[in-house]
Amino acid sequence: MTAEELKSIIAAGLPCEHLSLEGDGRHWFATIVSAEFEGQRAIKRHQKVYATLGAKMHTDEVHALSMKTYTPAEWAAQK
Prior knowledge:
Blueprint: H1 3-13, E1 18-23, E2 27-33, H2 42-53, H3 55-58, E3 64-70, H4 72-78
Parallel strand pairs: 2-3
Antiparallel strand pairs: 1-2
Protein name: BolA family protein
Keywords: Methyltransferase, S-adenosyl-L-methionine, Transferase
Family: Belongs to the BolA/IbaG family.
């Protein structure tokens, strides 16, 4: 799976204000900013992202995905 394919899948299932992705085809690191994360703890945010990937996480198309998830306000505070 390419970075663009993975970004497209995540963006199709989760409205993102920012989405960056780095990886080697199996191991990925994402930074995701979405208003959908408002009021949620990190585990719920990550579950939302994993839900966009569905079976791809279970079939090893995406072997590992680490991520940092932010609300738009949290992201703005990072800059």
